[in-house]
Design brief:
Globin-like, 2 domains, Globin-like_sf, Phycobilisome_asu/bsu_sf, Phycobilisome_asu/bsu, chromophore, bile pigment
Amino acid sequence: MISSSLRSQRYSAKPLVDIWTARYSCAPLSGGATPTQFEDAISAKGRRRTVERLHGRFIKQSCRRAAIRTSDLYTCYKDSNLGEIAELAKFAIQVYDVLLQFYQVHTPALVNIAEQQNGIVRGSTQRVFQIPEIVSLITDIEPLLLEFHAQQTIEEHWQTRSFLSTQLSFSSWFLLKVLPKEEQVLLGAYFYFLEEYVSMPWHRLYKAATTHDPSSPILYLAERMLPQIAPVSMQVYTQWSKLFGGYYNRRGQLDNSGVRHSSLRDFSMFQVYLWLCILQGDLGAIEQELVVLCSRVYRGIGIPWEMTVKGTKLLVDEILSGLDTEEKALISPYTAGMLRAFERQP
């Protein structure tokens, strides 16, 4: 979560805040909607109409269905029970209510961003919509997540983090499918943010960045590479899914849309943890958090540890392939340490 102190830091970390915000962008013509449909959907009247479609009763039903489906996916955890399902649903209902209130009040920001191809900035720009005042949205949501996690033990925390991201993924799917395509695209960006917010330590990454001098080569490299998280994840997932094409779990094979979505999210999560460690100057977050989370959750749902180790290796190779010799020297102690942390896990 982002503490209120980030408000006083957001200017020094503004480039990284902008990078985070850019992850939740949508183009006005994406999803097959027309410009007129987008203009109508993004208006105050249109946003109010979207929120009215997702009325309280429907949100409750969707979140409860999602909690049950999440519990079914994690049936390996014998200690999960109806009470836990109810708590997952309760949190989701509350957080969607806060998010939708924010969506109705704050007009999505229309910005121009430089188009990129293979990580290279092109001369043209693209107009996209983004979540406005993302720090304000986090400030609204943070108390709910703090309260939710305060009810758990440390052991339960790692398990619940994975449960929450899956719960929100299912809930968002149920909610979005009843909306017109232009509203799905707009609100889907907010739902994507919410899913990542509960699973990735972006806020700690920014806090770590504020400890660096603006001329720091590490900080410069992070600012250059963080926008590449999505394409790197896609490239790694493509290779990984071919290597383990025969794998199958309760949601299906690796080419199942739900499995693909969660896999891409996890590869992105690994990168956020890596850059957090690089900016902090130690491997603690990977060794004490990421490996623990993966060991508990992935093993629990039957993902062979070999797949996790190989995915980590592919990820490291892909990141390093985009760096020059000096840049590799800066981060290789951390990429090597990340690999060792996963390889030595029994």
